[in-house]
Amino acid sequence: MADDNTPENSGYHALATLLESIEVGLVVIDLDYRVKVWNGFMENHSGMTANRIQNQSLFEAFPDLPKTWLTRKVQSVVTLNTRTFTSWEQRPYLFRFRNTRPVTGTEEFMFQNLTISPLTGTGGQVEQVCLMIYDVTDVASGRRALEHANEQLERLSSTDRLTGLLNRGTWENLLDAEFERYRRYGHNTVLVMFDIDHFKQVNDTYGHLIGDEVIREVARITREALRQADRPGRYGGEEFGIILPETDIDGALVICERIRETLATTVIHTDDGDIRCTVSMGLVQLTDEPENYMQWLQQADDALYQAKEGGRNRSVAIRP
User: Fold this and answer.
1) Same domain for 199 and 88?
2) What pLDDT sits at residue 144?
3) Boundaries of each GGDEF domain copy (predicted)?
């Protein structure tokens, strides 16, 4: 009878205990992808015991595994007799385990890193493959949260906080880029500048908070009237600009009149009463005349001035 207290048996039990207790998934498969080892981590997260999955095909037990991808990875490990590693950034997970960590409860599934190692027999040939699955949900969640925060900061740095439109600096950069695009390709493009008529009276009568409500409503109506490719921005105070790419002056005039007419018939409900407002709009189609985007902007300002001088609540287009 074998002595359970021999160094060999003691070492075996210690190793078995270690494999069952480590917070890493350990799966050993043969070259036909039949499961030979399935440790406690895998039992806990899959709900499948080692006895149940023993000698089963891994792909039959888990039909949602990326079979083509994993097979290619395993075959490479077997052929080259060298381990390979993939991170959650390349593939979020191999096994679709639910995330059970309370700290990272916002993530639905466990993010995983994966190491695939060859296991050789006495003859030096690869006979089995070991998959080690590492739970990196904390790291992935933190990275994703940081990326989301950076995206929000970038968005906030480029948008006007009151209206959600592009702020002046970002919008002018796009205007400059559109000018250079015209210089290169010659596509039709129109610039619109407009502002709210008699806005000072709104501020003087109702106060700046109500004035802000009016500006927000003008921005909302403007945004809803535009196409996805159009670029509206708040230029400053009650003045706005719109870049209309791939648009001629007649098409731009239709868009501007839709905005102007909608605003003229809109009642803005505030705590201090109902307010109506109108806008004056100046449009200019880009030609070869301006030497830079600032001269193009000046042309649109001149058209806006003509709209105001002509009685306000109107659109004035400078045609090429």
Assistant:
1) no
2) 77
3) 187-320
